[in-house]
Write a structure and sequence with these properties.
The complex is a heterodimer.
Chain A (H helix, E strand, L loop, with lengths): L30 H10 L5 H11 L6 H13 L1 E4 L7 H12 L13 E5 L3 H7 L6 E6 L9 H13 L4 E5 L2 H5 L3 H15 L3 E5 L8 H13 L4 E3 L11 H18 L4 E3 L7 H14 L12 E3 L2 H14 L12
Chain B lengths: L21 E2 L1 E3 L2 E3 L5 E6 L4 E7 L3 H19 L4 H17 L1 H12 L3 H22 L13 E2 L2 E5 L5 H14 L3 E5 L6 H12 L7 E3 L4 H9 L5 E5 L2 H11 L5 E5 L5 E4 L5 H13 L11 E5 L3 H12 L20 H16 L3 E3 L15 E4 L16 E7 L2 H9 L6 E5 L3 H10 L4 E4 L18 E2 L4 H6 L2 E2 L3
Parallel strand pairs in B: 1-5, 7-8, 7-10, 8-9, 10-11, 12-13, 12-17, 13-16, 15-16, 17-18
Antiparallel strand pairs in B: 2-3, 4-5, 6-20, 11-19, 14-15
Helix pairs in contact in B: 1-7, 2-4, 3-4, 4-5, 9-10
Classes of the chains: A alpha/beta, B alpha/beta.
């Protein structure tokens, strides 16, 4: 089993190239080996996983803890717009908000990144210059992943060329569900090579994988292929991020680090709209993988409307009363 | 675990409960003074005295039984079953309405975390009344003949680990089947039973249907041995259960006993490991391990032993031990100094016998009764911590290699209350469950309770069932 491998096998933090002698290299030598490995991972009991997530959801986070959680959550937001109607103007407006989420309060932290389609990455890069806010671009025929390998790689190339320093790719769920794991693996490897220095987030689209067993297997598959982050969803499919799915993915990154020494981040995306949801996720991180993941380098929220609710709750904590939607900027 | 994300204290307010400086007995619908001494009930988390409680004497018990008899013959027995059901529904609703009050009071008096009293004890207690309310006018369909009859007066003695819930397990089926009740709550946790007495008044329950006589062992003995009691129900230690069985032997009284346990929680190598670890934690640390059906013996397949123990220790490291009223507390206080002494004694014996003790680094409060979550590895089936019921947050880990060995070790106990099986293989669950001599067998879960599901033991874990259709049989005479 995967949990018991010696954590010292690999130096912590290194990003292994496939074929470099990492402990699981042999499992990707053939489709059969990869299938045997993924299906040999411990199963996930659905009832138990959901019960655990629900119990953690009852944690009561108040006062100082809540203030810390809200600021941390803001700093973890990948502020996202992924609409067919997106324009350079919309992206610039989003970028302004990303730099300074609360115009009235400079102490509110900036968000982690702005997430856009690849063709608008250049606009975002320009608007965010010098801010430290990352630019993430979705790629590989987002959200369906239905295109040929060449088109997907060209998509990535284009986004990276436009200056995106984070690529959010989608896996081919069709291939995954029909058991062509090696194909999915090879595609992620190819995308990663195309990314160059850009960080790679791999979207599993768990809403289309249906089972927690699949979520765990897909997480491992993505990590083996070199993902820097595993991400739940595109936001275009319901259900998107749920607490139990995030729990299963956190367990996967925890076990992967224990086995390989390499830490991988997690990004729930889609459906997280309230401060309460965000805080529940932070509790989940805290009690599943611990403090090592409690930073924007290792945990992100893919969201758009979440930010305003965080800001409203932040204002409430500071002033003692609720304001209203007119006290935060629209995107 | 993490120093980065410190949860600020989130205490549930005590102001919702109003604990009187002293309480009498609840007899014939009234609070009356006891004729004997009084005792103190303390908050085990702080050792603060909460209230003075009357200790019921034989004379007090006699008054209570007489009141119960009167209520049985004049009111409750003759009442239309559907009307009895209405009273039970009413009690259930009041329990829900006053849920927070009950939860806070339970945590104060017992030491259990508010998260559990709020999310488990009180909702389940209400559920038991709802469930049995539905049975009240359908007893002819319980498989006990067309017109099963109640026994009469039920004398009930309950333990301190789930004071309100055990009250519900006893009182709800007794009332639904037309019996009346004299109940003796545990010495250290009488407060929620006394609040329940208030609920009986609020629900306009006819006087004498429920009588609550507080006290210690002597009071309990008086209830059990009273000659006009028709039915005795006891939940508690095997030792006391045995003496009750002796006292009742040769009388016309009907008896059910729900006693101790030393449950095996069996983890196979194909188990869903993360959920199994959760189940192990829930099995032994739920309610500080003060659970008769606690999964106190972990039987883990040798091939995953190291992996499971490492995961378990990491998980235990994240348990939050402390103020029972804090909404984020996972493990509260040990119920009494006596119980703490017993847990310490058995743990020391475990170490002396050669088992390896592991406890996470955790700070315990200065006052009150506390014991950290504890895991013993290298435990042999011959060790006392593998045989005696500790009734505390102490887990003994044993290993096995084959399914046969797992079954043999699981059944190698004088008890037989519950067991757990963890495997992703459905056929194995069925095959193993068939061979376990335990009243309740959980598969891929642990410590799940439901009023529809019968609960009870084999061997020295007692006899009779509580809950479900089977539980009704304990309170009814079969008709032909």
């Amino acid at each position: 089993m995967t949990h018991v491998l010696d954590p010292g096998t690999l130096e912590a933090g290194t990003r292994p190239a496939p074929g470099s002698g990492a402990p699981f290299d042999d499992v990707t030598r053939s489709d059969a080996a990869l299938r045997a490995f993924l299906h040999g991972l411990p199963g996930v009991d659905q009832v138990g996983a959901e019960q655990r997530a629900a119990t953690l959801g009852t944690r009561s986070i108040k006062t100082t803890a809540k203030a810390w959680a809200i600021d941390t959550a803001i700093s973890m937001v990948d502020l996202t717009t992924l609409e067919g109607a997106d324009t350079p103007g919309k992206v610039r407006s989003l970028a302004a908000k990303a730099r300074r989420p609360d115009p009235a309060d400079p102490t509110a932290p900036a968000v982690a990144a702005v997430c856009v389609y690849g063709d608008l990455a250049g606009v975002a890069v320009e608007a965010l210059e010098g801010s430290g806010v990352h630019v993430a671009a979705v790629a590989t025929a987002f959200p369906s992943s239905r295109a040929s390998r060449e088109v997907k790689l060209a998509d990535v190339r284009d986004a990276v060329g436009n200056g995106a320093d984070e690529i959010d790719m989608v896996i081919d769920r069709g291939a995954f569900l029909s058991g062509r794991y090696l194909e999915v693996f090879e595609e992620i490897v190819a995308v990663r090579q195309e990314c160059g220095d850009a960080h790679l987030k791999v979207i599993l689209e768990t809403g289309e994988l249906f089972t927690y067993d699949n979520a765990r297997r897909a997480s491992w598959l993505a990590m083996l292929a070199g993902a820097d982050f595993v991400k739940t969803s595109t936001g275009k499919i319901s259900p998107a991020a749920t607490l139990p799915v995030c729990l299963v993915m956190l367990e996967a990154v925890r076990d992967f680090r224990a086995a390989t020494g390499r830490q991988v981040g997690v990004k729930p995306a889609g459906g997280i709209r309230t401060t309460k949801d965000a805080v529940k996720h932070l509790v989940l991180v805290n009690e599943t993988v611990g403090a090592d993941w409690l930073s924007p380098d290792w945990f992100r929220f893919g969201a758009s409307s979440l930010l305003n609710d965080l800001l409203l709750q932040r204002q409430k904590l500071r002033t003692g009363h609720y304001s209203g939607p007119d006290h935060v900027s629209i995107d | 675990m993490s120093q980065l994300f410190e949860y600020a204290p989130a205490p549930e307010s005590r102001s919702i409960v109003d604990v009187a400086p002293s309480y009498g007995l609840f007899v014939d619908g009234e609070f009356v003074d006891g004729s004997g001494e009084s005792m103190k009930t303390v908050n085990p988390a702080t050792e603060e005295v909460l209230s003075e409680i009357a200790v019921g004497t034989e004379a007090d018990v006699d008054r209570a039984v007489k009141a119960a008899r009167r209520a049985f013959t004049r009111v409750w027995g003759p009442m239309r079953p559907a009307d009895r059901g209405k009273y039970l529904f009413r009690i259930a609703r009041i329990l829900q309405e006053r849920a927070r009050e009950f939860a806070v009071l339970e945590s104060l008096d017992n030491g259990k975390p508010i998260r559990e009293s709020r999310d488990v004890d009180v909702p389940l207690a209400a559920a038991h009344f709802f469930y049995h309310a539905g049975w009240a006018d359908k007893l002819g369909h319980a498989g006990l003949g067309p017109d099963p009859r109640p026994h009469g007066v039920a004398g009930q003695v309950i333990p301190w680990n789930f004071p309100l819930l055990m009250l519900a397990w006893k009182v709800a089926p007794a009332l639904a089947t037309g019996n009346t009740v004299v109940l003796k709550p545990a010495e250290t946790t009488p407060l929620t039973a006394l609040l329940f007495a208030e609920v009986c008044r609020q629900a306009d329950l006819p006087p004498g249907v429920v009588n609550i006589v507080t006290g210690a062992g002597d009071t309990g003995r008086a209830v059990v041995e009273h000659e006009d009691v028709d039915k005795v129900a006891f939940t508690g230690s095997t030792e006391v259960g045995r003496s009750i069985a002796r006292a009742v032997a040769g009388t016309r009284k009907v008896l059910t006993l729900e006693l101790g346990g030393k449950a095996a929680n069996i983890v196979f190598d194909d188990a869903p490991i993360d959920q199994a670890v959760e189940g192990i934690v829930r099995g032994i640390f739920f309610n500080q391990g003060h659970v008769c059906c606690a999964g106190s013996r972990l039987l883990v397949q040798e091939s995953v032993h190291d992996e499971v123990i490492a995961s378990l220790q990491r998980r235990i490291g994240s348990l939050r031990v402390g103020d029972p009223l804090d909404k984020n507390t996972d493990i509260g206080a040990i119920n009494s100094a006596d119980q703490l002494a017993r847990i310490r004694e058995l743990s020391d014996i475990g170490e002396a016998e050669g088992a390896h003790r592991w406890q996470p680094a955790c700070e315990l409060p200065d006052r009150g009764f506390w014991f950290p979550p504890t895991v013993f590895t290298d435990v042999s089936p011959a060790h006392r911590i593998a045989r005696d019921e500790v009734f505390g947050p102490v887990l003994s880990v044993l290993t096995f290699r084959t399914p046969d060995e797992a079954v043999a070790k699981a059944n190698n106990t004088t008890y037989g209350l519950s067991a757990g099986i963890w495997t992703e293989k459905g056929s194995r669950i069925l095959a193993i469950a068939d061979r376990l001599r335990a009243g309740v067998v959980w598969a891929n879960t642990f410590n799940q309770f439901d009023p529809t599901s019968p609960f009870g033991g084999y061997k020295q874990s007692g006899y009779g069932r509580e809950g479900g259709r089977h539980g009704l049989a304990a309170y009814l005479k079969e008709s032909s």
